[in-house]
Structure formats: structure tokens, C-alpha cells
Amino acid sequence: MGFIFLPMLLIQCCMAALAMSQPNLTTDQYALLQFKVYITYDPLNIMSSNWSSSATSICNWVGVSCGAFHSRVTALDLPNMNLTGSLPPHLGHLSFLVSINLSGNSFNGHLPPELGKLQRLRFMDLSHNSLNGSIPDEIWLLSKLEIFRVGTNWLTGTISRNIGNLTKLRIIYIGDTKIGGKIPEEIDNLHNLEKLSIGNASLLGLIPPNIFNISSLRWIYLYTNNLFGTLPIDLCYHLPNLEELYLHKNQLNGSIPSSIHRCKKLQRLALSTNRFTGYIPRSIGNLSELTEIYLNDNEFEGEIPEEIGNLHNLEVLSVGNASLSGLIPPNIFNISSLRWIYLPKNNFSGSLPTDLCYHLPNLEFLYLYENQLIGSIPSSIGKCKKLRRLALETNRFTRYIPRSIGNLSELIEIYLSDNEFEGEIPEEIGNLHNLEVLSMGNASLSGLIPPNIFNISSLRWIYLPKNNLSSSLPTDLCYHLPNLEFLYLYENQLIGSIPSSIDKCKKLQQLALETNRFTGYIPRSIGNLSKLAEIYLYDNYLEG
User: How far is it, in rounded angstroms, from Cα 258 to Cα 327?
Assistant: First the structure.
């Protein structure tokens, strides 16, 4: 009799277990089917072709993963599927869910508070959607959450003080939203935090100084807000792992702490567009791993510290419009890794070194405009082989424009206007087959305009006014200028007639030839320039 009782007991136990697991599986299935109902657009037909109550197990549905032992849904991953719809409260019934990733879709509506029931959740990525409303209080109680990404949405409201409960959080991205208010001080409870990303939001107030005591932090992104106040003098004392500090486009003031050099691993420093004053600390030259510096649009005083020349990995140096003066340290031009030098709108004086480009094989952008630089442009400029944009306008450069500039085959834009050169435009500029902008107005130039300039088919903008250029325009003026939009040659000594080929510049929007010595008739072909918005031909000797 005992032999019969034992199998019966086993059968009953199995049936009981099945009875317990089946409702759980059905609960998960029901939650997912409700999620499907809330989808209004599914261009890849994921739901219709795969998610079906009569088809295969939900554990085999696209984007669904289940636990190996209990067959409960543990992950819902459907990123970048072009899905449109809203998030149903039923997602809160997926009680075994560990990971949810619906980023890169077009979900709208509010975040359901029921997501706060997912107490096993470690990973939540709902970024890059169109969600709105505030972050529900319940979400700030998900104590196991490690990665929380809801940025690039239309979210509003504030950051709850309960953020301090998320002690396991490593990454938080709630930037590129409309979230406002202050950063709660409770954020200093997040001792495992590596990435704090709340840039391009609507935050205001002070940055809690205790944020800079979270030693695990590697990335701090708080840019484009309305944060004010000063940085703590011990800024980098407790940030041994910090790699990127982005605080640009705020209202921060005071000086940059000299303790910045203690952030030994810092690679990118962005403090531009604030109200920083004082001197740029010399200690910045100790940040040997630094690759990018953005300090432009501040109110500093003094010079660029020559210690910046020690940054042998530097690729971007951006300190424009920063109230700096004095000489540009020549050792900056020895940093061979530099791709971008942006120092315009200061009060720099002195001349450029004769070996300017000997050690800049990677330089792509050189912006030194609106300073007080003197002397000639070094002929070594031709050795910056990767240079794409050269902006030296509004200085006090003299002498001849070097012919070697014609060797810069990758050059796209040249700005040399408002200087005090002498001589002609070098004909070697005609070799620059990628050139789009040629700007040399008010530069004391004389002589002929090299005709081969009008053969550079990539040109969009020719700006040569207020010089003493003479000669006539070539009869085939626009035969090779299909992209030209702006032609400014006013206030020169140009003669002859306006070529009838002008109508072949089909994209021309503005034509300024006034105050020259043009003669003859205005060509009828000018009427074919359908995009032309402005014509200036006065102060010439035209007839008809």
C-alpha cells in the first residue's frame, strides 16, 4: 500500500507546483500582451509576426528573456525598433524583471508608477523616446537599480531626494530633458556612481559640493543648465578616477581651482560659457592624459600658461573669447597631437613662430582671429597638411600671403580679411580644389585676382572686397562655379564688363560688385539667377 501512496504523493506535488507556476507564467504573458496592445506602430512587425498568445512560449518572443529555472520573464529588450506607443501599467506585473531596454523608439505618455513594483530591476533604459511628465516617486525606490537611463525625453518635474536610496546606482542619465529644480544633496549617498549625466536640462542652483567627494565618479555631465556658484577649492582631492568633467554653458563663477591637477585621469575638461575669472591655473599642465580643453567664453585675466605645452596628448585647445592677453606660448605649436587650436577674440599680441607647422602634422583647425597678432604668416603654414580651416582675420598681419598656402590640399575655408598685407593674392590658391570659402576682404591686397580661383568648383563664398584689386573678370567667370552662393568684390578697381556667363552661377544669392570701374551693359543673363536675393552694382560706369 505504501508503494502506491508514494507515486500518488509525487503526482500531487507536481500538479501543485504546476498550478503555482502556471498563473505566474500567465501573468507575465498577460502583461506582455497588454504591452503589445499599447503599441500603435510597429514597422518591423515584431509584435504581429512573433508575439502571439497561441504561438511559441513567451520566452521565445523577440526581445524577451526568461530565467533558466523558473521560466519567468527577466528581460525585455527592444531598443531601436521604431516602435510607437505608450507604456502600460501592466509592466509592473513582470515581477522577476531584471532588465528593461526600450531605448531609441518613439514611446510617449507618462512613465507608469507601477514600474516601481519591479524590485528586482537592475537595468532600466528608456532613453531617446518621447516620454513626458515627471519621474514617478516609486521609481526612486528601486533599491537594486544599477543603471538608470531616461534621458532624451520630454520629462519634466524635479529629481527626488529619494535618489539617495539608489545606493547601487552606477550610471544615471536623465539629461536632454526638461527636468528642473536643484540637484538634491542626497546624491552623495551614491558611493558606486560612475556616470552622472544631467546635461542639457533645466537644473538651477548650486552644484552640491559633496558630488565631488564621490570617488568612483568617472564622468560628470552637468552642462547647459542654470547652475551657479563656485567650484570647491578641493575640487579634485576625491576624484582619482574622473575622466570627463563637462560643466559648460552654466553661470559658474570664481576661479578654476588649482587642485584641478589632482584629477590625474582627466581626459576632457569643458568649462566654457560660464563666468569664470582669475588666472587659468598653471597646474593644468600636470594633467598628462588631457586630450581636450574647452575654456572659451569666460572672463579670465592674464596669459595662457605655458605649462599647457606639457600636454603631449592634447588634441583640442579651445580658449576663445576669454579676455586673455600676452603672447601665445610658442611651445603650444609643438604639441604634435593637436587637431584644433581655437584662440580667437582675445587680446593676444606678438608674432607666430617661423616654424609654426613643423610639429603640427594633425592640425585641422586654426582659429586665431580677432586678436592683435603682428608679423607675417609663416611660410611653414604649408606643412600643416591636414589643415581644413584657417581663420586669421582681424589681426595686424603684414607682408605677403605665403605661396605655400597652396599646398594645403585639404583646406576648406580661408579667412584672412581685415589685415595689413601687401602684394597680390598668390595664384597657388587656385590649387585648393576643396576650397569652399575664400575671405580676404579689407586686407590691403593689390594686383590681379588670379583667374584660376574661378575654376575652384567647390567654392561657395568669394569675399574679396575693400582691396585694390584691378583687372577684369574672366569671360568664363561662372563656368566652373556651380556652387557659388556669395560673390563680394566691391570697393576695388575692377574694370571691363560684367561677364554674361554670370548666369551659370545658378546658386548665386548675393552679388556685390559696387564701387568699381565696371563698364558696358548689365548682362541680361543676370535675370536667370532665380536664387538671387541681393544685387549691388552702384558706383560703376555701366551704360544702357
Answer: 22
1-16, pLDDT tens digit by residue? 443 333 433 333 333 3
Rounded distance between C-alpha atoms, residue 411 and residue 352, angstroms: 20
What does pLDDT average to over the chain? Answer: 94
Closest by Cα among 420, 446, 422, 450 to 435: 450
Q: Is 275 within 8 Å of 300 (Cβ atoms)?
A: no
Overall average pLDDT of the 298-307 stretch? 97
Q: Using alpha carbons only, what angle is made at residue 207 by residues 323 and 187, rounded to the nearest 5 degrees?
A: 155
Give the cell for residue 541: 560706369
* Residue 19 reports pLDDT greater than 60: no
Beta strand 39-41 with 84-86 is antiparallel
Q: How far apart (Å, rounded) are the C-alpha atoms in residues 101 and 99?
A: 7
Instruction: Classify residue 544 as exposed, middle or buried by CB count within 10 Å of its CB (0-12, 13-18, 19+).
Output: exposed
Cell output for 242: 574622473
pLDDT above 70 for 23: no
In this predicted structure, the answer to whether residue 201 has a pLDDT above a threshold of 80 is yes
Q: Can you list the alpha helix ranges (DSSP code H) found in 273-341?
A: none
Rounded Cα distance, 135 and 442, in Å = 57
- Residue 352 · residue 332 · CB < 8 Å: no
Reduce the DSSP state of residue 18 to 3 states and report it.
helix
Residue 2, φ and ψ in degrees, nearest 5: -65, -30
Residues 337, 357 contacting (CB under 8 angstroms): no
Residue 255 CA, chain-centre distance (Å), reads 25
Is residue 226 over pLDDT 70? yes
User: Does the CA dihedral 185-189-191-194 come out positive or negative?
Assistant: negative
Which grid cell is 12? 500531487
Secondary structure class of 228 (helix, strand, coil): strand
Rounded distance between C-alpha atoms, residue 40 and residue 176, angstroms: 25
DSSP summary character for residue 242:
-
Q: Would you state the cell numbers that stand for residue 389, as one nine-digit string?
A: 580651416
pLDDT of 11 reads 34
- pLDDT, tens digit (0-9, with 9 covering 90-100), for 484-510: 999 999 999 999 999 999 999 999 999
270, with CB counted inside 10 A (0-12, 13-18, 19+), is: buried
Phi first, then psi: give them for residue 317, nearest 5 degrees: -120, 105
Q: What contacts 270, CB < 8 A, 6 or more positions away?
A: 223, 244, 245, 246, 247, 248, 292, 294
Q: How confident is the model at residue 48 (pLDDT cuts 50, 70, 90)?
A: confident
Q: Answer yes or no: are the C-beta atoms of 434 and 458 closer than 8 Å.
A: yes
pTM of the model: 0.90
The CA distance from 297 to 348, in Å, is: 15
Half-sphere exposure of 205 (CA within 13 A, CB side): 11
Please, are residues 317 and 294 in contact by the beta-carbon 8 Å criterion?
no
Q: For residue 193, report the phi and psi dihedrals to the nearest 5 degrees.
A: -65, 130
For residue range 90-113, what is the model confidence (pLDDT) as tens digits?
999 999 999 999 999 999 999 999
Does residue 150 surpass a pLDDT of 60? yes
What pLDDT is attached to residue 16?
Answer: 35
